[in-house]
Amino acid sequence: MPLTDHGYKTKNWRKFFVERREVLQEEKVGRIGALCRGEWKPEERVIELKQTGKFFHHMGYAEGDHLCLYPEEALFLMEVCSLEVYYAGLSLSIQQAYSMFLSESMTLGEYQTYSYLSRLGYIVMRHSGPSSVTAYERQIRLDQHISDISYSKKRKNMDDAGNTASKLSKTEESLNAQSSELCDKIPDQTSDATHNDIPIASTEKTDKLEAGTLPKKSVQHFLPYTMWNFDEINFPDIGRKDLQTHTLQMMPPRKNLLPSGVKINPNSCMVDVHKLHSSGENATGDNDEDDDGDDSHIYTTNNLTYSLMNASVMKAQVKAKNWSEYKAECRKMVTDFRVEQSPVGVLWQGEVTPLVTPDMASCTGNLLEHLQVIENIHQNKKKEKLSVVTGSRKISFDVFKPDSNFKKSQPGLPDHRICVISSSEKPPDLGQLIGLQKQCSDGVPLHWSVVDHGDIAFYKYCYTSLPVDVTMG
Amino acid sequence: MAEDKGEDKEKVTHKLEPDTELRFEVEAGATVQLELTKGLAEVFGTELILNKKCTFQGGSKLAVYTFHGCTVTLTGKTESAYIAKETPMTMYVNTHAALEQMRQKADEEFTRGPRVMVVGPTDVGKSTVCRMLLNYAVRMERAPIYVDLDVGQGNIAIPGTIGALIVERPASVEEGFSEVAPLVFHFGHKSPGDNLTLYDLLISQLAEMVNLRCESNKRANTSGVVINTCGWVRGGGYHSIVHTAGAFEVDLVVVLDQERLYNELKRDLPDFVKVILQPKSGGVVERSKETREESRDNRIRQYFYGKKNDLFPHTFEVKFNEVKIYKIGAPSLPDSCMPIGMVVQDNKTKLVPIQPSQSLSNRVLSISLGEVGDDDIVTTNVAGFIVITQVDMDRQSYTLLSPSPRPLPRSVLLVSDIPFMDIK
C-alpha cells in the first residue's frame, strides 16, 4: 500500500535523524600512547599542555614554562584523537569543546576552514601580520639569519587582541576593533613605513563610515602663504609717485627688529628724494655689460612652467591674492584664450561645455584618460592616490605547504593567506580589497574561504585588464 | 689723522663719527690690514671684532660703517681711503627691520617667510645689499636662504653657475659666506643671454629645490629667501627677472637705482608683490670689463687655492673613457632647419656629448651628480668643479686640477665657456 507524501517524508526524516545519531555516537579509536593531555584555561582562552606530542612541530607555542595551544588547534587535535582536554578535572567531549573553544575571535567558519586545510596536510597558523622581512632581505637571504626573538611575544599579543574583539558586538564596533587590533600589532613589529599608514587610515575611515565623507588628499609642495599687509609694514621706497620732489620720512624701527649694535639715528630718517633721483639714474644708465649689446634674441616662453606670458595683459585682468592663485588664473586665462581662438570655440558658449579642451589633444591616451569619469584601479598602481579604504577585514590564517623543515620560530613567508567569509555575508567591496592589498603586498596570494554550512570553497580575486582596440600613442 | 711711518707699511688711523662710513680700495698686488681699535663697526653687516686684524688682498673694495662711532687702523697701500657722511644705510636698515617684522608674522602664523629679490643694473651694489640683509637676518638668529643667480660673478661657487645656500652664520669679513654644501647648478656661460632658455629652466628647478628645503626646514621657511640677480635688466633680462619673481613667488622686489625698471616691474608684477626703489650707495665703484674678467678669474682661483692661498688642489690624470663630457645647448639654428615638430628652444637645453680634443684644455668643468643615461642631467646639481689643464691625445688622457684627490666622484662632466689658466 503506497504511503501518503506526508508519511513518506516523515519516515525519511526519522531515518536521517537516527543515522545522524549513530554517526555522532560512533566511538573513535586511538592509541592511548598518542593521546596527550591538556588543560583548558577560559580566562586566556588557551589550552595548557601537560605533555607534548608530534603535533607541537607546527602547532602551539611556549608561554613562560608552559606549552600552550590555540583553541582551534586543540579542537582539531581532539577531533583526530591526539589530545584530551580537561576542565575542572573532567575530560571535555567534542560537543563541549565546540561550544567552549569557539568564540568571536575564532568563529565556526574559521574553524571549519582550519580543520579542512589541516586535514589536507597544510600547516595553518594564525595570521601574524605583514612580513617584517622585506623582499630585498629575502633576496639576499638575510631572513635565514634573523632570529625572531619577539616571535612568541607576537603570538601572545595576537591572542590578547582576539580577546578584546570578542567582547564587542558584531557591528561597526567589531570593525573598529579589528582596525585597532591592527594598530596594536603593527607598532610592535618592525615593518616598513608603508604598512603603518593603513591602520591609521582604517580607523579614520571607520569613524567616517557613517558620515560618508572622504578625507582630502594633501597637496605636495604647498607652503602656506602669509598675507602681508604692506600698509603696516613700512618699506622705504623712493620711487613712490607722491614723493617725487619731497622728502621721505622713515619711521625708526622698533628695537626688537634690529640686531644688537645697530641703531638708527632719528636724524637720518629724513631723506631728500629729489637729490637722490637726480644724481642716481643717469650715471649708470644702461651699462649692460653682460648683455653684450645684443637684444635681438628671439625668445618665446611656450615651454616653461612658470612663465608669465605678456605679463601686463595678464595683470590687468587677473585678480588674485597670492602667487598660486595668480598662476592658476593665468593658466586658466591662457587655456580659455586658446579655446576661444580655436575653430571649436563656439562649443563653449552655451551652458553645457565639452569635457575636454583642444589643448588636451596631445595623444589619444591622454584624451581617453580625461574622458574617463570612473577611474580604473590597477593592481600595482601607486596607492597614495586612492583614499578609498572603507574598513578592513581580518585575515585569519597564514598557510604553509607541508614541510618537514618547517620551523615555528622562523616560518618564513606564508604560501597563502586566508580570509574567511560566510556565504550569507556580502562579498567584500573595492575599498576593503584595496585595504587588504596594502596590508599584504608581498606577493603572497590571498584566498577567500567561503563557508556555507560546512561546505568550503576557495576563491581568489584577480586583476585583469581588458584589451583595448585603440592606439594610445 | 695721525700717520706713523713704521717699518715698510704705512699705518693710518681713522676716527669715525657715528653714522659714517670709511671706504677704501686695496691697490692691486698689495695687501691691507684693518684693525678696529675702539668702538663698534661693521663691514657690510658683519661686526668687526675689537683688536682683531683682518687682511685684504689686492683689488678688494670695502666700506666700514659705524652706528656709534669708532676708530680703525689701516696698514698697507690703499688706493683711496675716505670717510663718507651720506649713506643710504638707514634705508637698508629700515628694509631689514620691515623684513624682520614680516618674519615675526610668519613665525606666529606658521606660514612662509618673506622672499626678497634684489634687482638693478650692473655695479649698483646688489651683492652687497644682499649680503647686508642676510647678515642682519643671521644676527637676529634667523637662517635665511641665499639664492645667487648672478652667473657673471658667482658669489656661491664659481662664475657660470647659479646656486642656493642656507646662511646660518654672518659672512666672514675677509672671506664672505662660508659655503658648506651649497646647491649649485651648472649654467656654463658668463652671461644669461648666451642661453636664456637654460637660464630660466635652471631658475625654475632651483626654485623647486628651495621650496622643498623650506618644507622640511621650518626655520629656513620662516626666515625667507634673499635672491641676488644678474645685472641684465633689458629685454630678455627683464623677462628673466619677471620669470624669477614668479618661480620663487617673491613678496618684495628691491630695485636699486633704476627708476625705469622700477616702473616696469610695478606695472607687470601682480599687486600682492611689493616693489620698492632704493638708491645705490655712493661707495659703489664701477668696474671696467677688464676688472670683471680679472675678478672672475680670481673667483675660480679662489675655489681651487683658497682665499688666502691656503688650499692645495690635486693634479692627476684621467683616461678619456673614464669620463663623459657634455655641453648643454646645441648651436642655434633657424626654425626652417628643424625637423617637423621640434622647436629651437628644445635644442638649447639639449645635452650634447663632446669628443675629446685640444679645445678642452684650460676649461672649467662641473662634475654633475647625475649618472650617464639619466634624462635630467641638465637639471641635476653639481658636486664640484675641475679644470682640464692638459689633453694628451696619444695617451688618451686628461690632466686635471681637482680640489680632492682621485678618483672623481662621478663620471659625467659638463663643460663651461669660462676658461682658466692655472698659472701661479
Per CATH, what is the topology of the domain at 30-103 in chain A? Answer: MutS, DNA mismatch repair protein, domain I
- Rg of chain B, nearest Å: 23 Å
What is the CATH topology classification name of the largest domain in chain B? Answer: Rossmann fold
How do the strands line up in the largest sheet of chain B? Answer: 14-13-12-15-11-16-17
How many DSSP E strands of chain B? 24
Question: Which residues of chain B sit in consecutive blocks of at least 5 with pLDDT less than 50?
Answer: 1-7
Q: How many structural units, i.e. domains of chain B?
A: 3
Helix content of chain B: 25-40%
Order of helices and strands of chain A: HEEEEHEEHHEHHHHEEHHHHEEHEE
Oligomeric state of the chains present here? heterodimer
Helix segment count of chain B? Answer: 8
Largest sheet of chain B: 7 strands, mixed
User: Strand content of the residues of chain A, in percent?
Assistant: 5-15%
CATH homology superfamily name of the domain at 30-103 in chain A: tRNA intron endonuclease, N-terminal domain
CATH superfamily of the largest domain in chain B: P-loop containing nucleotide triphosphate hydrolases
Total count of helical runs of at least 4 residues of chain A: 13
CATH architecture of the largest domain in chain B: 3-Layer(aba) Sandwich
* Structural class assignment of chain A: alpha+beta
Major sheet strand order of chain A: 3-4-2-1-5-6
Uncertain residue ranges of chain A: 149-153, 159-175, 182-220, 280-308
Q: What labels would you give this structure?
A:
heterodimer; A: MutS, DNA mismatch repair protein, domain I; six-stranded mixed beta sheet; five-stranded mixed beta sheet; B: 424 residues; alpha+beta; Jelly Rolls; Elongation Factor Tu (Ef-tu), domain 3; 8 helices; 31% strand; globular; ATP-binding (chain B); nucleotide-binding (chain B); Clp1 (chain B); polynucleotide 5'-hydroxyl-kinase activity (chain B); nucleus (chain B)
